Amino acid sequence: MNNLSRIMELKDKKITVDLNNPVFRWPGNPILTPYDVNKHWTAPHLQVITTHNAGITKYDKKFIMLFRSHLRNGISVLGLARSRDGTEWKVDRQPAFMPCSKEDKVGEGIDINTIIENESGGVEDPRITQIDDTYYITYSAYHGYEKDRVRVSLATTKDFRKYTRYGPLLDVDMRNVVLFPEKINGKFIALMRPNDTTADHTGGTFKQIRIAYAKEIISNDWKIEPEPLMKQEGGPSAFGDKIGPGAPPIKTKHGWLNIFHGVRSTMDGNPYVLGVALHDLADPAKVKVSNIPVLFPSAADCRVLQDDYIHVPNVVFTCGAIRKEDGTILIY
Q: Is the residue at 1 inside a domain?
């Protein structure tokens, strides 16, 4: 075994990873399915047909997962599952986060009617970042009747039972925003993927990741740098069509680990892959990006029954990863 290989243990299983196989697929996949959710969300209007794109964190000595599910009417909601080891999950009996209603709590001075309108088409793709005792959740809010209008919005919680919503981080069409888990040089920092093509702020091609700064997370005062920090490569590249943030950055001694997604258009579809980048600890605008993906989609990722609904085949996508005490990183 060369010195670039490493043997890890997960639930008493020995796992080998190396440069050619940097990510090990958990043999117990899938860890959460619509069947698991529907056992608990028994009301007909809460039955789901998907479970995917989950944010991950630790709370009260347990792993917490906020997962996205499509209801049968096509609206996305967020559910919550809990785990002691990160592999076996128990779903809460009700959705954790539905599109906003009059009963939900919003931040001081926030117009709840605007949030209700912005989220009427569904809430998707949560990313969770803990800073001190507060958990910040960025998620995509879909407008109910303006086609392709998406705003990345913010919510907070301290216990994953009560949530406060603050509406869009910026009134800009974008998806996939991740927050760094601490202030750097006195500022909060995020990786954002704003619409980079269309003037009317709908649709777009989303080919660039940009860095943004704010004095406070809960504000509408994020400043997005005009120059892209990362962008799709074009040509025969695994990231040739789209690129976007994935999991919130993880601090390591080598730098901030950024696990992102990329898309390449082919004659047989648009496969999504996962890539990695490393940002400087003191200045995340300095970044090194690997041009080789660390995870490709495979048939093993689509373990479904013959009559199951398949929403997004040929895709691996992440909204969350967590580092264990031994340095192992679990990617969801």
A: no
